[in-house]
Specification:
The strands form two sheets. The protein has a six-stranded mixed β-sheet, with helices on both faces. The protein has a four-stranded antiparallel β-sheet with strand order 2-1-4-5, covered by helices on one side. The chain has helices spanning 41-48, 71-77, 94-102, 106-115, 118-131, 146-159, 176-191, 203-209, 227-231, 234-240, and strands spanning 3-12, 15-25, 30-34, 56-61, 64-65, 79-81, 164-168, 195-199, 212-217, 220-225. The protein is built from ten helices and ten strands. α3 runs parallel beside α6 (146-159) and α5 packs across α6. The protein has a domain at 3-89 and 161-240: 3-Layer(aba) Sandwich (Rossmann fold). The chain is globular and about 50 Å long. The structure holds adenosine-5'-triphosphate and magnesium ion. Adenosine-5'-triphosphate is lined by residues 12, 15, 17, 35, 37-43, 84.
Length: 251
């Protein structure tokens, strides 16, 4: 197991966004998180990647308690993520975005940008080929289509040194061809030994790709299992159709 979240609680004012959520991510597997809008999926990603502090609960990464770490400390340990709303710098080029991603220290960043090391140029080429982003490296973030931005965001997450990749809705709003190509990219990364945790609403994509699924509703996990088990679980369907105020209880 590479990641374990135990009994996480997080309220925003009166809203219990996370209400006792626990799940684990197996090493070298693809794990999916599904659940209705507002069920707390992104908030869990924010808690795990340290953008927000939970009210209580613990997080372990590679067997170490990382609950109290800062975001950059966890990133250094090997957690890389994408965001539901792609965040790119409009005035930076593809190359600059990837150089920043590959720099884990300020010194390395400066040497990457001003001296453009050979090894890094090779890594950039590899990542671009892997995601299939067919644009010149000096294209600005501003000049990319939605699908290309999604690919660059994925390339940035991949370019960061990591062992766990966390993707928040990697195929939201992309066309079916790109969706299939993102599926292939993730399979390729997984076959190289990466552990992947992804949130996604696209059921065909999730069911086809992941090894294990956790279903969230109202801030907690209400079901888990292999894709076939989840597909045939009537309780999960009920959660999607709008269960009770406190959420549907399946476990
Ligand atoms: N910073 C915040 N301040 C206040 N409320 C928040 C904040 N972040 C999330 N919430 C609330 O927490 C709940 C869970 O939101 P979250 O974004 O985690 O859901 P989600 O499962 O990712 O939904 P979606 O599938 O629509 O992306 C929602 O009610 C949301 O409005
Ligand atoms: Mg979300």
């Amino acid at each position: 197991m590479i990641l374990s979240c135990k009994d996480i609680y997080k309220s925003f004012g009166g809203i219990k966004a996370i209400d006792g959520c626990s799940f684990t991510v197996a090493e070298k597997k693809i794990t999916g998180i599904i659940g209705p809008n507002g069920s707390g999926k992104t908030t869990m990603f924010n808690v795990i990647s340290k953008l927000i502090k939970p009210d209580s609960g613990t997080i372990e990464f590679k067997g170490q308690d990382v609950t109290g770490l800062k975001d950059y400390e966890l990133a250094k340990m090997g957690v890389s993520r994408t965001f539901q709303d792609v965040k790119l710098f409009q005035n930076l080029t593809i190359r600059e975005h990837l150089q920043i991603a590959m720099s884990d220290t300020d010194e390395k960043l400066l040497s990457n940008i001003f001296r453009g090391k050979e090894g890094d140029a090779q890594k950039i080429k590899e990542v671009m080929e892997l995601v299939g982003l067919d644009k010149p490296l000096d294209t600005y973030g501003n000049d990319l289509s939605y699908g290309q931005r999604k690919l660059l965001d994925l390339a940035i997450a991949i370019a960061k040194p990591h062992t766990l990749l966390m993707l928040d809705e990697p195929v939201a709003g992309v066309n079916p061809r790109l969706r299939d190509s993102i599926k292939d990219i993730l399979r390729e990364l997984n076959s190289r030994g990466e552990s992947i945790l992804l949130i996604e609403h696209d059921m065909n994509f999730v069911m086809d790709l992941v090894d294990h699924i956790f279903v969230m509703d109202a801030g907690k996990v209400i079901a888990e299992g292999a894709p076939e088990e989840i597909q045939n679980n009537p309780c999960v369907l009920e959660a999607y159709l709008g269960g009770s105020e406190e959420g549907t209880k399946c476990l």
